[in-house]
Known about the structure:
The structure holds two protein chains of two kinds. Chain A is α+β, with helices and mostly antiparallel strands. Helix content of chain A is 56%, strand content 17%. Chain A has a single domain, classed as Arc Repressor Mutant, subunit A, CATH 1.10.10.10. Chains A and B meet through α4 and β3 of A and α2 and α4 of B.
Amino acid sequence: MRADAQVLKGHLDTLLLASLEGGPRHGYAVKEALRAGSDARFDLPTGTIYPALRRLEAAGLVSGTWAEAGGRRRRMYELTPSGRRRLAGDRAAWRDFASAVTALLEPAR
Amino acid sequence: MSALIDDYLAGLRRRLPAPVAEEAAAGLLETYEHHLGTGAGDQEAARAAVAEFGDLEMVAGEFTRQAPGRHAARLLLATGPVAGSCWAAAMIGGHAWTWPVPDTARLVFAGVLLLAILALLVAATSRHSYQRTRLALLASPVLLSLDMTAITAALLAAPALTWTLRAAVAVSVGRIALNACTLPRLTTR
C-alpha cells in the first residue's frame, strides 16, 4: 500500500519531526528517510516535503540553515527544543490511539 | 545542467518569492544529484528528478497553501466576527452616532477597514498565487492601526466607559497583540 499526502494529512508533521530526530538532514534525505522507514509506503513527491518543512520552521519546530556542500548550497533542517517536545507528545498520543484501535480491531479471543 | 531542470527552476522563480524559490530549487537540485549519483545520464537524471519532485503547479500550490501570509490572514479573519460584534454592541449601546467624530473620519475608517478585509480574504483564499498571500503583510499593519484608532477614538469620544466598550477594547487589544506576534514572521517570509 502506498500512501499519498492526503492519507498522511494530520500525521505528516509528526513523521517529518521523527525523521529529524537522529540529527540534521537536508530535504531529500528527509524524504528518503520517510520512504525507507516505511518500506516505500510513504513515497511522497519530493516537492511537497519542502513546503511542509518550511511550515514547521515557521512554527518554530524545525530550524533551517544553509550549508555549503560540494560547491553547492544545501538547506539543512534540524529539530528545535520545541520540535523535540512536540514529537514526544505526538508519539505518546499515537501510542495511546494505536493501542485503543488495536484493542477494538483485534480483540483478545 | 539539463534544460529540463533549468526550465523547472525558472518556473519556480516565476511563481514563488526569491527565498522560497531558492529553497525549492535546492531541493530539486538535491533530487537531480541523487539520480546523477545512481549513474543516470544527464537527461535521464533530469527527467527522473522532475518526475520525483512533482508537478510544478502542484509544488507551487503546496507552498502557497502553507504560506505564513495565508495562515495569518485566516487567523485575523477569524477574529473579525468577535471584534465586529463587540464593537457593534459597544457603539449601539453607547449611541456612537452622537459621539463628536467627524463624518469624514467615520467614512475613511469604514473604507480602510473594508479594503483590509478584502485584502485578507484574497490572501486567505489564495490557492495558486503565493504573491496574493503576501497581501496579508499589507493588511496586517493596517488592521493593527485601525484597532488602535478605534480604541483611541472610543476612549476619547465615548461619554462613558460601559462594559460593552471595555469588552470591545479588550478584544482589539488582543488582536493588536496577535498582529504584533504574526507580523515579524510575515516580513521575514
